[in-house]
Amino acid sequence: MIQSLAQVCLDGLAAVGLAAYALAARREAGPLIPRLVLLFGLMAAFYAGRALHALTGLDGLQVVAFAAVALAPTAALLLAEGVLRRHAPRLLKLAVMGASLVALGFALLTARDMAFDARIGLAGPIVLSLMAILVLLGTRDRDQLSASENRVVAALALCLAAALPLILTDFTALMTAWIGLSPIAALLIVLVILSSASGDPRGTAVEIGLLLAVAAGVSLGLAQALALSGPADLARLFAVVLAGQIVASLLVRLHAQGTADRRGGLRRRLVRADAGSVDHFLADLAEEPLLKDMTVLEAGQLADHDAQALAAVLARRPVWSLERLKAGETAASLSEAEPLIDLLERHGATHAGLLSLVPARVALARLPGLARGVEAEIDLALAFRMARLVAERR
Asked: Which ranges does the record mark as transmembrane (predicted)?
């Protein structure tokens, strides 16, 4: 009972993590994206189907799970070809595709007659295919790839080599394993892929080490609290805790990546904006969330202040913050800051920037409290500065 419950938890966590990665990857562009989505979408479907079948007993879910995992080796080969930027040898390609078809046949024809963990007809083709892909990655022509590409391929090959023994544990009836650990292998591979973008393999290794150490500590504490005894139950608890931590790390990374992509939206709009005039330029940025509440004040609307003096102060930097003006942390004296503070407070704005010096035109923007980070201010400063360059060019 404990083994089946732990396996359901592992499979469910893997399904969540892999599906989240596949959905997030769909927003990206690049030749590898469809291959990544295919592979990890299949793996997410496998783990979700296996977990739901264990909970509900519906045979259809088991068929879906078996079919998905049987096709995974072919999807993995396609990804390997994309990473290496070359086709695999024809014989290897035919062998892997044939192995997938054999595994698919076993899966569909015997789905209702035999449990997953006893299927040598499924285990053999999958493991042999992944071993062949590992050889393909290991024997690559390193001169055909850049240094960064070679690092990514090496990291993937290392992950795959470490994953193979974990994949074998899924066939617990054949390997007498306490629990199937392939979900952890799949999650670690995704973690390495996400980390490869930073180009810091040491950081990834340290993170994995910390995850293992924390999971061990938490598992020991929970084992005592739950009065679990025996290495088998402790190993199962450790696996579930570790998988939960990896999924949490993946979700945090994916959220941060999504936030960075949204911030990049303004920069993409700046590249495409019409630089024919300031009005056209700002109109093209009007739908950007950072600039939706922007107000542009002409010289006549600055009559309560010395418009040219105000513009001269604003010209010292691309963007001014009400918070920093009040704190005296800006390159403005008290007498220079007071008109700016009054202008911002009167219009309910948090930031100001100069759009043109002659005639004086000032942009006011209101950033929500949670959005007033350094990156948001840099993006705002970039928009104001480019608008001013457009005006000065006219």
From this structure: 6-24, 36-55, 61-79, 91-112, 118-139, 151-168, 174-194, 206-228, 234-254
pLDDT tens, residue by residue, 85-105? 778 888 888 888 888 887 777
Question: Which residue, 74, 75, 134, 135, is CA-closest to 99?
Answer: 74
Cβ neighbours of residue 345 closer than 8 Å, sequence gap 6 or more: 322
Tens of pLDDT, residues 339-390: 888 888 888 888 888 888 777 888 888 876 544 567 778 888 888 888 888 8
Q: Yes or no: say if 290 and 379 are a contact pair by the CB < 8 Å rule.
A: yes
Cα–Cα distances in Å, from 39 out to 22, 32, 33, 127, 390? 9, 11, 10, 16, 46
Residue 189 and residue 330 share a domain:
no
Do 118 and 64 meet the contact criterion of CB atoms below 8 Å apart?
Answer: no
DSSP code of residue 117: G
Residue 18 exposure: Cα atoms within 13 Å on the Cβ side: 28
Q: Give the residue from 154, 179, 204 where a domain finishes.
A: 204
What is this structure's pTM? 0.69
Domain count, the chain: 2
Instruction: Output the domain CATH number for residue 190.
Output: 1.20.1070
Using the 3D structure, point to which of 164, 184, 204 is the last residue of a domain.
204
Domain range for residue 38? Answer: 2-204
Q: Which helix (DSSP H) or strand (DSSP E) does residue 393 occupy?
A: helix 374-393
**CA separation for the pair 102, 125 (Å, rounded):** 7
Calpha distance 187→240 (Å, rounded): 12
